[in-house]
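Usage

Read records sequentially. Each one opens with the input sequence:
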Amino acid sequence: MFGKLFLAIDSAPLVLWILVNGIKSRSTMRRLPLWLVFFGLLLLGAAFVYDVLFVGLPYQDPTPALLADYQSGRERVYFLGWSGAAILVLGVIGGIARLVTRKRKGQ
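and closes with the structure output:
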């Protein structure tokens, strides 16, 4: 639970800066879907590495404390993985929408 809270707190200044200043250049807007795809893949990779290195396989006969620790690690992996997948899908949809609108303007 606290991991989600800290992630939201860490990203809040960036979101606030974007809301206050806006995206001022067209090149930044053009590259936004690419950055979303990159960041989504980065989060998916981070979830995989965290799963392999820190969570791993479940214990054979775990104590309740070890089981709770394993479950909390799995929740973190699921959160990172699904967040990365959602951001990746948003980037792909944004890239497709950009391509469709760019082709319509050229006609």
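Summary fields computed downstream for this record:
- Residues 5-9 have pLDDT under 50 and may be disordered.
- DSSP finds three helices and no strands in the chain.
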